[in-house]
Design brief:
There is one protein chain. The protein has three helices and no strands. By secondary structure, it is mostly helical.
Length: 80
């Protein structure tokens, strides 16, 4: 059922991701992690396994910079 409704779910999640475009990338915060980063990054990282999501500029930059800084790979290469 989830795969059958993928387009609907993707559209909804893309809207929600756009609401996070206020995120300040780590490079603009002197690469200082906060407790918010510890809580938020795992959720956003898990979304990278979903093919077809469109990440707004700051969200994508945040994910990429967090991945590099922490040494934790994203799932983009295995997204389905």
């Amino acid at each position: 059922e989830a795969f059958a409704n993928s387009e609907e779910y993707l559209a909804k999640l893309n809207v929600e991701l756009f609401k996070l475009d206020w995120l300040v990338p780590l490079s603009q915060r002197h690469n200082q992690l906060t407790y918010d980063d510890v809580n938020l990054f795992p959720f956003l990282r898990n979304y990278t396994v979903i093919k077809g999501l469109r990440y707004p500029g700051h969200v994508r930059q945040y994910l990429d910079e967090m991945s590099v800084l922490t040494g934790i790979a994203l799932y983009d290469s295995v997204a389905v």
